[in-house]
Design goal:
Largest sheet: 7 strands, parallel
CATH superfamily of the largest domain: NAD(P)-binding Rossmann-like Domain
Distance between the termini: 28 Å
Number of strands: 7
Shape: globular
CATH class of the largest domain: Alpha Beta
Structural class: alpha/beta
CATH topology of the largest domain: Rossmann fold
Strand order of the largest sheet: 3-2-1-4-5-6-7
Number of helices: 9
CATH architecture of the largest domain: 3-Layer(aba) Sandwich
Radius of gyration: 18 Å
Order of helices and strands: EHEHEHEHHEHEHHHE
Length: 257
């Protein structure tokens, strides 16, 4: 399927590993210019070198000037930003009984502040050109809070609320705004978490993997390319009538409709 984004320029945040890297590669395969970003400059440039038309940019979204550095590099290389994929790590695990006011402020600052800044830097150009795609990689706890992720349960829905409001205000300008909610995926981070749990409990890693995968109705964790394919579609010209929505890619994990 031709997603009709050849020649478009995509900034993909936190794309040096995992789901972000998967989306970056999927967009590149469709002919988009890709800006690979992450804190590790060498890795960002290495991945970019493997793609047909890409640059690697080292940037920490939480640092002063981080979002500006990414957009400046993108416009210098390709002229404009047509697709913005928001992505990044979540806050530390915590129960609702454990969180502090300071923790809540930090969660909002990390999951909403830099993202809003990035949007503000590219949105005017998208609206002027009459075409733009903003996609936030998020998690299913936007819809179904997780007991041990209270801070993420606060920050991710806050970003979702901002993006939903934005979607209604720029839809007529040809700019779509959506979220893609991830369930369990087979990534290096998940492998590390499972290995740590195995060491902590003295159980075999394979046993833990099978136990956790059994909680997913489809019977397994997803592969990165499966998530990336949905993300690439939402960033495409073909998804021009999809906006203001949260799409789950979770193997049926969330119980609600």
């Amino acid at each position: 399927m031709d997603l009709k984004i050849a020649g478009r320029t995509a900034v993909v945040c936190a794309s040096t590993s995992g789901l972000g890297e998967g989306i970056a590669r999927a967009l590149a395969a469709e002919g988009a210019n890709v800006v690979v970003t992450g804190r590790r400059e060498e890795l960002a440039k290495l991945i970019a070198a493997q793609l047909p038309s890409a640059i690697g940019v080292a940037a920490d979204l939480m640092s002063e000037g981080g979002p500006e550095r990414i957009v400046e590099a993108a416009t210098a290389a390709f002229g404009s930003v047509d697709i913005l994929v928001l992505n990044g790590p979540g806050p530390k695990p915590a129960t609702a009984l454990d969180v502090t006011t300071e923790d809540i402020g930090t969660a909002i600052a990390s999951l909403v502040g830099p993202q809003q800044r990035l949007v503000s830097l590219v949105l005017d150009g998208m609206r002027e050109r009459g075409w733009g795609r903003i996609l936030a990689v998020s998690a299913t706890n936007v819809e179904e809070p997780l007991p041990a992720l209270a801070l993420s349960n606060i920050g991710r829905p806050a970003l979702a609320g901002y993006l939903k409001t934005l979607a209604t205000q720029v839809a007529a300008d040809g700019v779509t705004v959506n979220l893609l909610l991830a369930g369990g995926f087979r990534t290096a981070r998940r492998d590390a978490v499972e290995a740590a749990k195995a060491e902590r409990t003295g159980r075999p890693t394979g046993e833990i993997q099978a136990e956790e995968a059994a909680q997913v109705p489809i019977g397994r964790f997803g592969a990165v390319h499966e998530f990336a394919a949905v993300g690439a579609f939402l960033c495409s010209d073909l998804a021009s009538y999809v906006t203001g929505t949260a799409v789950r890619c979770d193997g049926g994990l969330v119980h609600s409709l």
